[in-house]
Specification:
Blueprint (H helix, E strand, L loop, with lengths): L3 E5 L10 E8 L2 E6 L2 E5 L9 E5 L2 E4 L16 E3 L10 H6 L6 E3 L1 H10 L4 E3 L5 E6 L2 E9 L5 H4 L6 E10 L2 E8 L12 H4 L5 E5 L4 E2 L2 E2 L4 H11 L3 E5 L11 H11 L13 E5 L2 H4 L1
Parallel strand pairs: 1-10, 4-7, 7-8, 8-9, 13-14, 14-17
Antiparallel strand pairs: 2-3, 2-18, 3-4, 5-6, 10-11, 11-12, 12-13, 15-16
């Protein structure tokens, strides 16, 4: 079956395939810029002290302000949304995000976005992909398997996906592979990822050790290190930590596990408001 294709308005400037950046806004919200694309992940712009609703009467309070307001975002090419939870797509995004921006997400979240009035949600089943064209620039987004909690609570939580962003520098040639875990625990299907998609350059790890009804539903520090061992990214960046009161595994847990595993050279830490600038080797950027 042919992949779906999303065609964006062509850019007026040449896409830079040598240099890119990831700006950490907070929680799972990042701004990714590479190869002419500007991509927002999991928009969450509530402020410190405000509460999110997580379903079944569960609520959580935000501990830190986002590093950027939604009104200060640059023009976006698309949004990648791991799932429909209010700490990943909040009422600020529902109210203020451009209704025409394409949003690549799960079928469950796409249906909710349509009800909210968003014009361009694109639903992917696990392992499905969509090709995105912007002038001469090409991006392929693949839905990766995710399990947002063990079976006892998993049925109460919205379906979640990880995402693999494959940026093409020319037809058939991948310049950069960026993996976003989404809110998941370590599970058997995750081990299939490096077999099907080896050579991951960057991975954004959703951590926090979030607990619902006392049960862990996102990776803690130990599982975050296990994700690095499984996915084998050249560089891993932890996100989705410390931002909400339901997160019970602080970043320090992950840092301790990274040191114990001898993986310090594979991990880059970002504070909210910091940017990770990366460079793609010339041999892959052409």
């Amino acid at each position: 079956m042919a992949e779906n294709e999303l065609v964006l308005p062509a850019a007026d400037v040449d896409a830079d395939t040598r240099n890119g950046s990831i700006y950490f806004i907070g929680n799972a919200t990042t701004l990714i810029r590479y190869a002419g694309f500007t991509i927002l992940t999991d928009p969450n712009f509530l402020h410190k002290g405000e509460k999110v609703r997580l379903g079944y009467g569960l609520r959580s309070t935000r501990r830190f302000d986002p590093a950027m307001e939604i009104g200060d975002l640059p023009p976006l090419d698309l949004v990648v949304l791991s799932h429909m939870h209010e700490d990943h797509f909040d009422r600020v995004a529902e109210r203020d995000l451009d209704r025409s921006v394409p949003i690549i997400t799960t079928p469950h979240a796409a249906a909710a976005l349509k009800k909210m009035g968003f014009a361009s949600p694109h639903a992917l089943q696990t392992w499905e992909a969509i090709s995105v064209a912007k002038g001469g620039a090409r991006l392929r987004v693949v839905s990766m398997p995710g399990i947002h909690g063990p079976a006892v609570v998993g049925r109460l939580l919205p379906p979640v996906m990880g995402s693999l962003l494959q940026f093409q520098t020319r037809p058939g040639k991948i310049g950069l592979q960026l993996y976003i875990t989404g809110d998941t625990l370590i599970h058997s299907q995750l081990r299939e990822v490096p077999r099907v998609y080896p050579d991951i350059d960057l991975a954004l790890l959703h951590l926090g050790g979030t607990r619902a009804l006392g049960i862990m539903v996102t990776m803690d520090g130990k599982q975050g290190v296990e994700a690095i061992r499984i996915l084998q990214p050249k560089t891993a960046i932890p996100i989705h930590y410390n931002d909400y009161t339901v997160m019970k595994s602080p970043l320090e847990d992950f840092q301790r596990e990274v040191r114990a595993a001898g993986l310090e050279d594979r991990v880059r830490y970002l504070d909210r408001g910091e940017t990770y600038d990366f460079e793609v080797p010339e041999s892959r950027a052409r």
